[in-house]
Batch of 4 targets.
Target 1
Amino acid sequence: MKGADATSGVRSVIAAALLLMIVLGSLYSWSVFILPLEQTLNISRAGVSGIFSLATLTFTLGMLIAPLLYSRLSAVRLAVCTGVLAALGHFLAASLVPELVFIGYGGLFGLANGIGYSLAVQSVQETGGHHRGRWTGIIVAGYTFGAALCAPAFERLLTNAGPAIAFLAIGFGLAVAIAIVAWLFARSGLGMLGVGSLIHSGPPQLRSFALLWLAMALGSLAGVFALGHAAGLLASLEQGTAFASMGVVLVSIGNGLGRVLGGWSGERDQPQRRVAMLQGVAALALALMASLGEPTVLLLGLLIAGIGYGWMAGAFPLIVAGYWGVERVGMVYGRLFTAWGCAAVLGPWLGGRLFDLSDGYHIALAAAALSALAACLALLLLPPQERQYQIQRI
């Protein structure tokens, strides 16, 4: 397509990807379900938390599976599959049978998130042209903001109608929203997504992949720790619940802001260097938090740690495109995403374990600082990118 038709097609893809990310981002509203499900299902807090842990694992699995479907299903059909899995997962959870809640929400909805996230990132990479970096940053930020938009509505729904009706209503809402996503993809004219082999130029690419995997794992470990323990960290100062909640707000704002800025910075040459710089700044902030422990330092440190984590999420698809090409982003990024899966499982647990062993967060913060610093070093060891891929398929 050319001219006005091409512009309209690109806008439709971006709108579809952003809407898809926002509604799937409701997965991060999980915390509002914990207490109602604990009471309704009559299972322990650890048991209820296991549902979200399973969703994290199937999210990662979906990121791996999605690129394998690119050559078999169009963007429209992938969106439909995502909607069916997301809605069906909530309908099964509405039964309030513990096993079906695990299968539905933890299994199917988590899988839908991985497939949908991959679809959104790949479609914008292929159609965003010279501005694909800023659009990538916006859509991955949309995933984070989706949780902020959905959590209050879900909480009211749970309070007024209970978990069963809430799951049914959310499932129906997801089906309608993702049907609109599929329509937007159809309107855009986007067909099959790009796909390719992971490594296509020998050992240097293997080394780059290993360093990027290590950087994502270590950087995510520090970021997930900050997100998962922000409230507990500030609550340990005993300055009230409002102060503790402020930490959650700041780290979340930092995460969203970092995603937008990280995507925008990815349009420039050698974006991995800017991610390394932000990981270094996050390491310094976490180290100061560990050594000083002052309220203002902790609040500012959480904001910076959130920005560093979000910056990585926004920039990594652009970094992958710079090394492997735009059409391979989904495949390579999906495999890199296993690093995030490992960090998402280990980060909150490791932070809690170190807290229990030391009766405080000082050692946990120091460990997070070292993790961010190691991520910085891994990124600095990457070879320079030889070219930037800029394609537009619509």
Note: The CA atoms of residues 305 and 362 lie 16 Å apart.
Target 2
Amino acid sequence: MTQLPLSPPPLPDSTPESISADLSCIHCGYNLRGLFPDGRCPECGELIQDSRQGHLLRYADVEWLKRLHFGTRLKYWSIGITILLNLMAGALVAFGPPGELFRVIGQIGAALGLWATMCITAQEPRVSLEENPVTLRKVVRGSAWAAFTCGLVGVMDPNASYLITPFIAVLSGLAGIVTFGGELVYYRRFAVRIPDEKLAKSTRNLFWYAITVATLWVVMMGVVAILTTVVAKPPPLPGTAPPPMGGVLMMILAGGTLVLSLMMLIGLLWYVRMLIRYRKAFAEAIENRGV
């Protein structure tokens, strides 16, 4: 006869090990270290397993994804609305309304763009709740507010002194460049988390394209300033023809402005097309979360 064992063999330990490293909840940012992976976050009730899936967007917090989706859609709609309103303003100004209408309508579009930037740069819950004093998110938000405020000052005080107006124009331009560049850096990070290598590459290329256009614009303005103050001379008497250099200066300014305007339009269309692709990616991530 076969002898039975005195006691049954021990069952394998199926109890999952607790999380040994810092891990933030994707919904509230709570540190899940020491908890079991098959449980729920004690702070918000989110499944801990969802927070262990990595940093892909399809596992991110739903409310944060919805904000990104809304901000991206608002961003390209704000661009379209601004262009449309400015065309309407141009038609109205031709029939008599004051030129300040351009600035007012432009500020409406700027307000929509500011709102979109706030949504795009919203802090992800899974990131530590304690944020460093200086981060890309804060820099982009601060520059967006600076650009909007400069535009608002121009609308409220169109007759500012000749010393204040150039300063506001320069500050607004720099703030706008920082905001746009920072948003592109943000979007490229999203593309890596989709993941979509082609979209990430396109976003990076657009970033350097925008830097190139901004640099060319600054160089052209510098050349025009030098020619205006050093080379070109005013007509000797009222009513006389301007010197030849004046005509050359105007040709340089007109040609450079036309080329850069076309480059800006190409970049703008590129940006809108890219935003549409990101909006679709955010929508797919939200759908993946079952919402």
Note: The CA atoms of residues 150 and 167 lie 10 Å apart.
Target 3
Amino acid sequence: MVTKSRATILLADDDAAIRTVLTQYLEQLGYGVRATDSGSTFWKWVESGAGDVAVSDVVMPDADGLDLLPRVKEVRPDLPVIIMSAKNTVLTALQASERGAFEYLPKPFDLGDLADAVSKALELKISQNSSPDTSADMNLPIVGSSSAMQAVYRLIGKVAPTDLSVLIRGESGTGKELVAKVLHEFGPRRSKPFVALNMAAIPADLVESELFGHEKGAFTGADFRKDGRFSQAEGGTLFLDEIGDMPLTIQTRLLRILQEGKYTRVGGLRELNTDVRIIAATHRDLEAMVSEGSFREDLFYRLNVVPLHLPPLRERLADLAELVPALVTGLSSPTIPPKRFTKDAIDALRQHSWPGNVRELENFLQRVMAVLPQAVVDASAVQSELGAVNGSGHIFEEPFLAPQDLEHVLQTQMQRFFSENRDGVPNGKIYTHFLEILERPLIKQTLRATRGNQIQAAAMLGLNRNTLRKKVQELGIKVVRGHGTYIDDGS
């Protein structure tokens, strides 16, 4: 192994001030440094066999550091290359990793980070990774240049080319499924399916069938054989969202699959082999759940091979300048034209805490785009719309019930329902009754959020516009638009 006193660092950066600072710092650490502002000179040094570690910027007058990487790896596969870049996007991190970079350092970075990277590069052999180039004009699903997101990008860049299990942690609305999709699309299974399943959205008695499938006749209503999500994701990636809501019995079955790669359909006898990459996500404290016995410890460690934390939006408000135009572009349509948010409008958005994270921001922007007539949104418009929040912290005028509170309300309603139907409850009556109980306030809340705009409300609810209008009529909800207000029947 090369010692510090003998190691030479090749440094390429077109910024003279940065070259000077990095050269002096590395020399103080005991390294020899050869520095240049030219990509061609850097390449000649590499080709001649000079240097033990290379540190290169992406943009140089006569070359692109990322474009040089495959050539470097071809002629000098043992030369660790550390890539620096002021273009701080997840795509840069992914390209650096895919093309064989030992480390990616987004500018500005701490000099200590460079020292650590150089030290590790001298001690460890890097493995060769080559993957197809990714188009630079790709519509990136993850946006933000804050230091919090740079840490996420670096980890994504390292993990995406592998087949390791990843556990994505973060509050609701931070974009966990988007990250899972990026890990899949830039990984070795990109040509195979990406299948997502939200554990919290499936009744407990249906989870097993959804995951593993079932045979015909396995239970009442199983009139045909059904493939589960593991079968659908074969060869690709299975994203298990809200993994903390998975029943303990299913956790045991999932653990066996992770250990042995085998499972059986519900009601089946034949063992099936499976080959999928598991990416899980949760907003829950799984460690606490392990301690209380509601989540298997062995499964936790199987899933938590690579932990990835997504920061809440309130911790990266600087990213709003990039997030807002990106979201506006994605939300625009023939019926909802895009709008431009001024710098003052972005500053006004930073005054909100966004407890619902990026999802709440997206919903707010949808409402503004649908409701406001002007093409340019300024600070006063943003402040006016945020004023409709009424202190709840969300774009909805009334906060939603917590799950435990909702369960208590339903339990109370159920007791009342049975007391009123002591002579017997007709089949199907309970579902219809309680669906009406939940559906009416849900639609009313969404209409309040859009100030009576039914087109926008339908989009937020995921309903056809005509379906929403029919439900509004059936449920007796009165909508009056005018002077920026929404009025219902008062109930």
Note: The two ends are 76 Å apart (CA to CA).
Target 4
Amino acid sequence: MTVEASITLRTANEEDQDLLLDLYKSSRRDDLRGLGWDEDRIDEFLAMQYESHQKFLTNDHPAMQDQIVLLAGEPVGRLAVEQRAEEIRLIDITLLPAHRNEGTGTLLIRELQQQAATARRPLRLQIIRFNRAVALFERLGFTRTSETGTHLLFEWNARSN
């Protein structure tokens, strides 16, 4: 069985809150370890940040499709996308550490690129500038369209690829 054949998505629900918190923490924990904090302090800080992040998503992305990535039926990640009239916005793609660098993220992004090409809309995302996934998006043909001190805005457009 190929990885592609075993990946499915389902809508996130209340029972997924622990998984979503684990995903959030797993994607940010290493950055905080560099501050010299102990693990309990990191956990506490990330739990507060997660609550704020969830409120931000609810307020700023009301049409977001929040999905759980399943690999052979087991939850391994999150894919959050907002279909807008002028673009498809990738809000979040996160996989549990044990499932990173196996092609799952690439497959999900390529599927979004196909959707964007079919809809004739750009696929856009914003990412923290030091995120390891920056190289992945560049490899998949995304270009930087703007940046701030902390974030990069990327765009993929079928017409330019």
Note: The helical segments are 3-6, 17-33, 39-60, 104-119, 134-139.
